[in-house]
Design a protein that fits this description.
This protein is of the alpha/beta class. The chain is 48% helix and 14% strand.
C-alpha cells in the first residue's frame, strides 16, 4: 500500500512500544524508513523487542525504560531523546485495562488505569509539545483511544474515563497547537487481539462467540490493518487531518455502543475466575 520510504527521516516515539500493538506499530514504521524510540516499564521486554528490531533494522531503535505515571521521569525521557535531536512524532499507545464490576473497584484500582492512560499520556504529550513549540519544530501526536471514549462502556469505567480524557486532549490541542505546527489525531480500535491482554478481557469461548456476533465483518482486526492506518496518519500525506478520531473496528460500534456491554452475561463464577487472572 505504501512506498518503502514513506516515513524516511522521521523520528518516532511509541509509548508501550515493547509489546502488543505498540510493538506492531514500531515494526511498521521501521519498515517504512523511520527511526524509532520505544519506552515502557518492563526493561526486559524493551530489550528483547529492540534486539528483534535490530536484527532486521540495525541501529534504528532506541529503548528507554520509563514509568509514564511519574511526570519527572517522563520529562527526563523526553530530554534524553532531544539530546540526539527532536522527535517528529509521538504515538501515545501505553495503556492499562481490566474488566470489573465497577462497584468492586478500589481507589487504587481506578488510579492504576487513570495514571497510565490519562496522566501518562498527558505528561509525554506536554513534554514533547513544549519542546516542539520552543524549537518551532513541526510535531505530530497520534493517540490510541477506544470506541467507548465517545460512548462510555460498563465494566471498564476507569479506561472509558481515561480514554475520553485523551480524546478531549487530542481535540483541544489540535485547535490550540494546530496553527503552531503541531497536529493531533487519534485511532479508536475495536478488538485487535494481543498476547495476554485478550485472554484477560475475553474470559471464555462463549463470550468470544458473542463478541464476533457484535462485529458486522465477523472477525477481529489484524495488526497490519491498524499499523497501516497509523503509518498514514504519521505521514506527511495526511497533513490536513487534525483533531480527528478514526474508528477501525469492522463496524462494531455501529452495531452496539459500549464495547464491553455484553459482559452482563457473565456469572458470578466467571467474574471470580477473571479476578483470579
Amino acid at each position: 500500500m505504501f512506498q518503502n520510504d514513506l516515513l524516511q527521516g522521521k523520528r518516532i516515539l511509541i509509548t508501550g512500544g515493547g509489546s502488543g500493538l505498540g510493538k506492531s506499530m514500531g515494526r511498521r514504521v521501521l519498515e517504512l524508513g523511520a527511526t524509532l524510540v520505544i519506552c515502557g516499564r518492563r526493561e526486559t521486554v524493551l530489550a528483547e523487542t529492540r534486539a528483534e528490531f535490530d536484527a532486521d533494522f540495525p541501529g534504528r531503535t532506541r529503548a528507554i525504560p520509563c514509568d509514564l505515571r511519574d511526570a519527572a521521569r517522563v520529562d527526563a525521557l523526553v530530554e534524553a531523546i532531544w539530546e540526539e535531536g527532536p522527535l517528529d512524532a509521538l504515538v501515545n499507545n501505553a495503556a492499562g485495562n481490566f474488566l470489573a464490576r465497577t462497584e468492586t473497584l478500589s481507589p487504587r484500582a481506578v488510579d492504576a488505569v487513570l495514571a497510565i492512560v490519562m496522566h501518562g499520556t498527558t505528561y509525554v504529550t506536554l513534554a514533547c509539545g513544549k519542546r516542539w513549540l520552543a524549537g518551532q519544530h513541526p510535531g505530530n501526536v497520534l493517540s490510541i483511544v477506544a470506541t467507548y471514549a465517545e460512548t462510555g462502556s460498563p465494566y471498564v469505567v476507569p479506561s472509558a474515563m481515561a480514554k475520553a480524557g485523551v480524546l478531549a486532549m487530542t481535540r483541544s490541542l489540535a485547535v490550540e497547537w494546530g496553527g503552531r505546527g503541531i497536529r493531533l489525531n487519534a485511532i479508536a480500535p475495536g478488538p485487535f487481539p494481543t498476547e495476554g491482554a485478550w485472554s484477560r478481557l475475553v474470559p471464555n469461548e462463549a463470550m468470544d462467540r458473542a463478541w464476533m456476533n457484535k462485529i458486522p465483518l465477523g472477525r477481529v482486526g489484524e495488526h497490519r490493518e491498524l499499523t497501516d492506518l497509523a503509518a498514514f496518519l504519521l505521514a506527511d500525506g495526511s497533513a490536513y487531518i487534525n483533531g480527528e478520531v478514526v474508528v477501525i473496528d469492522g463496524g462494531e460500534w455501529l452495531k452496539g455502543a459500549g464495547q464491553f456491554s455484553l459482559m452482563e452475561a457473565l456469572s458470578d463464577d466467571d467474574w471470580a475466575a477473571m479476578k483470579g487472572r
